[in-house]
Amino acid sequence: MMTLDMHTDAPSTRRQDERTERIERTERIERAERIERAGASKTRRQDERGFTLIELLVVILIIGVLAAIAIPSFLSQKSKATDSSAKELARTAETTAETYSTDHGGEYAGLNNNLAELHAYEPTIQTAAGGGNAYLSAVAATANEYKVTATSTSGHTFSITRNTGGVVTRTCTTTGTTAAEKGGCPNGTW
Question: How many domains does the chain have?
Fold first, then answer.
């Protein structure tokens, strides 16, 4: 009987040891999870603390310096864009003057102070200020030479001159003295 009791006691003791071990393991896991949650909330509180006033001021200062560098270059780009429109208009007037010459036996004399004639040949040529666009402001011509001048919205003028020898020159005048004010006419030619 004793042998029988020993066998019955051994499995029940083993089962009880296993239960105790499971309970201890569960308690250890729960304890570890509590510790982890407490550490996470502490870390979360540290992460949510935000920026100091000094850090924010440094960031604002850096943004201000970058803006001070970038804004003037953007302003000069706008001037260059309006000047490009005037240059394009002067080139269109040059091509139109050559077309006129072809139709009139190689002569340009009929174009002298006659913006309407160029506009009749090329309706896209704007001959009066307005609409925020560049416009053709002058045409001077003789039998063998001409000069067409376009004015941009910034007030800069762009001229194309063809002399009697057929040499074409491009000149421009500006209203400013700094590089940003000169726009698309940095040195008097283009």
Answer: 2
